[in-house]
Each structure stands twice: as C-alpha cells, then as structure tokens.
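Request:
Um, any thoughts?
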Amino acid sequence: MRRGLTLSLVLVLAACGEPAPELPSGVSCAEVHLGGQDSATLAQVLAGAQPGDCVLVGDGTFTGSLTVPKGVKLVAEAGAAPVFEGDSPDAPAIRVLGGAGSMVYGVLVASAVGVGVQVEGDGVELREVTIKGSHRGLILYCAGTGCLGQVLLHNLDLIKNDIGMWASHLTIKMEGGQVHQSGVLGSLTSGLGVTLVNGARLEMVGTHVTENQYGLVMDGANTSAKLTDVQVMSNTERGVWLQHLRGTAAAPSVQIDGSTLIQGNAHTGVGAVDSTGIVIRGATISGTLARPAMTSLGTTADVGDGIGLFSNTADVTVEDARLEGNERCQVLVDQGGENIQIVRGTIKAAAGQAMVVVQNTTASVGVNPAAKSTGAAEMPVSAPDVTLPTLGQ
C-alpha cells in the first residue's frame, strides 16, 4: 500500500501546481517513493521499498543510522542537497546492503561520529556522494561469501575524515573524485587516505589522493590495484605504500599506468616491502620530500625517495617512467629480490640527490649503468609496515 501512496503523492503535487520532485538525470526506478522530512519517516520508507525502487530525499538534515536495502536506490532530488549525520560511534550514518541496483546518489554525509557510509557487499553504486568530517569516511567489505560483482564509486569526495576509505574482500572501480586531507581530525588511527586489505581489488581512474598522511596503503597476498591517470600528491607520510603483496610480471599485484602523477609526497613516493608483481609504466614520480624518519638501525635519518624497494621485493618493472627531483634518491633498492628492471624513461637528480642506488642486494638489478649512483655511503632504510586498523570484515 505504501508504495502506491508515495507515487500518488507525486502525482497529486503535480496536479495541485506544486513542483513535483525530480529524479537526477540518468537514474531509473521501478517506482518512486518520497522519503519525507525526518529520519524516522525516511527509515520507514526505505524499509518498505523493493529492489529497483528509488527513495527520493530533498533538502534537510537526517540524523541517526539509516539502512538502504538490497537493490534500493537512495537518491537526492535534482537540485537538492540532503545532509546525513551519523550520531553513533557504533553505527554508520548510511548502511548500504549489497545487491544488484543498490545505490546512493547525490547526498552529503557530514560529521559522522562513527562511519559515514558502510557498504556491505557487491553490486553497489555510490554516485556524486560527499563524505566529510567523519571519523571513518567509507568502509567497504563483503558481508558473507561470493562477492563476485563490483562496487562502483563515481565522483566520490572523501574530505577531512580521520580515515578516508577502507576496503576488504571486494572488487571496486573508482572513477574521478578525491580523497583529501584524511587525518586532520587527529585520532590515534587517523591519516589513512585509501586502504586496501584482505584481497580487495581496486581499479582507480582519474582520482586525486591528496594531502592525507598516507595516500594509498595496500596489504596482503590477494590485494591488488590498478591506477590510471591518478594524482597522489602532497601526502605527508608516504604516497603509495605496498606491503606483503603477491603478484607476477604477467599478473601484477599493482599497476601504475598512464599519466599517473605521484608528486610532492614525504618520505617515499612508491614504496614496497616484501612484495612481488609491481609494474610502473609511464608514470611520473617526482619531488618526494626528505623528512626525518626512524631507520632500521634505530637512528633517525632524512628519507625522501621516489621509489623504495625493500625486503625481498621482486618482479618489479619500472618502464618509461619519469623520476626526478626526489630529494634523497630517485630509486633505492635494499635487500631486493629477483627480476627488478628499470628500463627506458627519464631519471634526473639535482645536486645532492642520488640516482638509482642498489645496496645489500645479491640479485642483479636491470638498470642502465649510467643511472646508478655508486661509491656513496650506505643509505639508511626506513621501511616499517604501516599498522592498519581492523574494520568491517
């Protein structure tokens, strides 16, 4: 009954001369429901919606925790700017259950005490969503087994959350948008821009990951990512950090392609510890800033390396890349493994900066001898694992 009444209300408004709520362009619905003006009404309408239906929300502020059922779309009216505020540390402001057609479109999630948006399963789309000023911005994981589909994140803005995005056990495509200034709220586990663990698989295209403490951190044997035309810039700890990944040259754990720009990060532009199957092709890694860091010897040293490959990291190809202006070293290989190749591309170092340094490595590293820096004292290494919080499942 509720489904018919809500659609009838849209028709009554139009008949009375009131402007009927409009769907954003490109959103299709089996049936449209009006979400009401308060959280209790919206929760009731969402609970009654069926897969394929849209629940339409207008301007207003909705407080508490709301659940979007499987296959249901929570959509901001065209031209509206609804705000969702989570008030519990134990529940997300918006919880989205995985299923074909599940969607959140055009809303702002602000100042959530716990999680801004929590996605539980595949088949979900988040479009034109902003999550800002929350403790944990976006959490994505597979609730149950068999999450073989994809989660699509389109023009998603994650701004000034303690943790930007954390993903586990899902395949994700992220198009456009930004992950910006994670960690400015200053909690003990803050500063992670994008975190992938436990077999998460990410394809990121055209996204900006900027001014976080850590830009992108990946951990675990089945975790993988492909970055194309991405900007990872001005992150204050590391740009891209890879730990304990397992891939091959034919099936890489990480691909950094296209005109991806990794610039102005502190300590390390791209670093890898105990990882295999890394391909960097056509990217620019520049201007990494040397900053004090604790080394493996228990001392402090200024570290600012474009690429750092540590602790048996192997099967690495750096091809047609541009490495320049990284303040300590363009590439540092320490205790490197087999099959590290640095071919073609451009490697430039200013006065006081090293080119390619290979140390404590018995395996041969394929690099133009003219690009190698030799004869200098051994460089101190700072390559500890990033300690990651356990979130979701």
In short: DSSP finds two helices and 39 strands in the chain. Confidence is low (pLDDT under 50) at residues 1-5, 7-16. Helices lie at 2-15, 39-48.
